[in-house]
Specification:
Elements (H helix, E strand, L loop, with lengths): L10 H26 L1 H12 E6 L6 E2 L5 E13 L6 H15 L3 H13 L5 E4 L4 H10 L6 E10 L7 H4 L2 E3 L2 H7 L9 E3 L2 H5 L1 H4 L4 E7 L5 E8 L7 E2 L4 H10 L6 E6 L6 E7 L14 H8 L21 H11 L8 E2 L3 E4 L2 E4 L8 E2 L1 H7 L2 H11 L1 H10 L18 E2 L2 H5 L14 H8 L5 E2 L2 H12 L3 E2 L18 E2 L4 H17 L16 E7 L8 E8 L6 E7 L6 H4 L1 H14 L1
Parallel strand pairs: 2-10
Antiparallel strand pairs: 1-8, 2-3, 3-4, 3-5, 6-7, 8-9, 11-12, 11-23, 13-16, 14-15, 17-18, 19-20, 21-22, 22-23
Helix pairs in contact: 10-21, 12-14, 12-15, 13-19, 14-17
């Protein structure tokens, strides 16, 4: 019998082996879970059991030198609809009711609703940034609107809208790709981050830290208990050197200009009192949930480039450059302080006759009178006599063809000053050795044309060095030492103080009896002013630029102004000087 059915005798052994193997697999799995991956699964368990209710931090304020708020944060209320809870019949019923209740256009509501449906949004903003009375009216009637509610969040707020927009900068929510990196630094999805200006440069100082409450829940997600609260940490304020009174008038004087820039600076230490660029833009645009396409296009796709900071962009300087040529002549020893040159209707260099701006000449004059009347032919002779590299070397000492050191350097253009090396190497577009320096170049360079491109900020630094007796300052916007992101030092320039004084005397004569005499018109009790007018041909083919630079008092100067009107033909004394005069009025009255 046993031999007849041998397979049945092996069944207990097979069963035993299968059971043992199964048990071994379970044991190995337990070892893997409990010992090898204990921390990983404990973390996953805690994440399922413990929830974090995050608390958004409030960004620090940006304030001017006197404490006026230029940027802060506020609660923003929006009316939203969740279309998954609103059918077509209900929507047609709600729409006129909302329009009447909140005094808004029914068409604008429909446009936003349709746009949200098209994009399959689960939450559609119907009205952005509700006023207080609108919030109250809706709250009183919200029980009749199923699927509609008021949402609130903290947004960035700019009380002066477009004032100092390029200086302050703006914030935007971080993108998904940025989140993968920034999450390690404590950022949350859709958290705000500074994109330009002070908002960008001082991001770590100003952003604050997220807080929140840790709560324990059961497997159904029901609250069990609080495990502790960490309050959010408000960001630090940033105090600027900007004076809002001077900033407001700087913006105002640019109002009728196509484009331009104003810089108001303390020449003693480089503190910026005002920086304006035209056109500007409303910083509050970036706090909107719904950004109309036409507004977006005007900002990002406009040919006028409102996001472009013209105070830090490079242009042909024209006659305001003549101080560089003057110092190069004096420093060379070829044209010492007692030099007098005959000025003429025009002087030929190469194949071109370079004219005097009055087509007559000014007779035999020296440095101070050449600056006073802004003679072209005087400086042609100086420039041609010393050569391109002498002018280039002096320009470098005065801070040209270099970044200024200002905090918002992401907006800054380095500019350009030609040299013989640049010409030998192909001028940036030709073959080396085949684009040599020609006589026409030095004539243009001597009066700041074509082979010279400088920023209004670089002009401010160079003239500050004349005003303060020979120190190159670092322009800065930060008021407090603990906020500094740049080295705000004064550098003694390797230029003979006697030569600086000669140029300074010439700039004083410009205002006393030269091309800048009208700076005193209509202004009473103004301290003595020194300055220089400039009219520059646009190397890109546009209309002439107008420049005026001045500092006051002429001795022991406290204020320096650079006024620049882009593509505004007629001359610096006609268009740029009056802008500076209005700023001087306000400064003198406040002082």
């Amino acid at each position: 019998m046993n031999n007849k059915f041998p397979a049945f005798n092996r069944q207990p052994l097979v069963f035993y082996l299968i059971t043992s193997f199964t048990f071994l697999l379970v044991l190995i799995r337990l070892i893997f879970l409990q010992l090898l991956n204990h921390e990983t699964y404990k973390k996953m368990s805690d994440e399922n059991r413990i929830r974090l209710i995050a608390t958004q931090p409030i960004r620090g304020r940006i304030i001017d030198k006197n404490g006026f708020v230029l940027a802060d944060s506020r609660l923003k209320y929006s009316l939203i609809v969740k279309p998954q809870y609103v059918d077509e019949i209900s929507w047609e019923k709600y729409k006129p009711m909302i329009s009447k209740l909140l005094n808004i256009s029914s068409d604008s509501i429909q446009k936003k609703y349709s746009h949200g449906l098209k994009n399959k949004n689960l939450s559609i903003t119907l009205l952005d940034d509700l006023k207080e009375d609108q919030v109250i009216k809706f709250k009183e009637n919200e029980n009749i609107f199923r699927g509609l509610e008021i949402s609130s969040r903290i947004i960035r707020n700019y009380p002066y809208k477009n004032i100092a927009s390029h200086v302050i900068g703006y914030t935007q929510p971080i993108t998904d790709s940025e989140f993968n990196i920034l999450s390690k630094r404590g950022y949350k999805l859709n958290d705000l981050i500074g994109r330009t200006g002070i908002e960008f440069v001082f991001e770590d100082h100003i952003r604050g830290e997220w807080g929140g409450e840790m709560i324990e829940v059961n497997s159904l997600g029901t609250f069990i208990k609080s495990l502790g609260t960490k309050p959010s940490k408000k960001g630090n304020d940033v105090e600027l050197t900007i004076d809002i009174n001077l900033q407001l008038i700087a913006e105002e004087v640019l109002r009728d200009k196509k484009g331009g820039a104003i810089i108001v600076m303390d020449p003693r230490d480089g503190a910026i009192r005002a920086m304006a660029s035209k056109p500007s833009f409303d910083l509050n645009f970036f706090s909107k949930d719904f950004k109309p396409q036409e507004e977006y296009d005007l900002l990002f796709n406009s040919s006028t480039k409102p996001l472009f900071n013209r105070a830090l962009n490079a242009y042909d300087p024209g006659s305001v450059w003549k101080i560089v040529t003057a110092i190069a002549g004096l420093e060379s020893g070829i044209f010492p302080p007692e030099t007098f040159l005959e000025t003429k209707p025009c002087i030929t260099y190469g194949s071109q006759c370079f004219r005097e701006h009055n087509d007559l000449g000014f007779g035999k004059i020296g440095y101070e009178d050449a600056l006073r009347v802004s003679s072209n032919t005087f400086f042609y002779q100086i420039g041609y006599g010393v050569g391109v590299d002498a002018i280039y070397q002096v320009s470098k000492k005065l801070g040209f063809a270099s970044l200024s050191g200002i905090e918002i350097s992401e907006q800054e253009n380095i500019g350009f000053v030609a040299s013989s090396k640049w010409a030998e190497e192909g001028r940036g577009w030709g073959e080396p050795g085949k684009t040599p320096w020609v006589p026409e170049d030095i004539a243009s360079m001597s009066i700041g044309q074509f082979v010279v491109q400088v920023t209004p900020m670089q002009i401010a630094r160079a003239y500050a060095a004349i005003a303060n007796g020979g120190y190159l300052v670092t322009p800065h916007l930060s008021k407090k030492e603990n906020q500094l992101v740049t080295n705000q030092k004064r550098i003694k320039i390797d230029i003979d103080p006697i030569n600086i004084e000669i140029v300074k005397n010439g700039l004083r004569k410009v205002v006393e009896s030269g091309t800048g005499v009208s700076i005193n018109y209509g202004v009473s009790n103004l301290p003595p002013v020194s300055g220089k007018t400039g009219t520059a041909e646009d190397g890109e083919g546009g209309s002439d630029h107008a420049w005026f630079v001045c500092f006051t008092p002429s001795d022991k100067s406290e204020l320096l102004i650079v006024a620049f009107a882009q593509n505004t033909p007629g001359g610096g004394s006609v268009h740029a000087l009056p802008m500076a005069r209005e700023i001087l009025k306000v400064w003198n009255e406040n002082k």
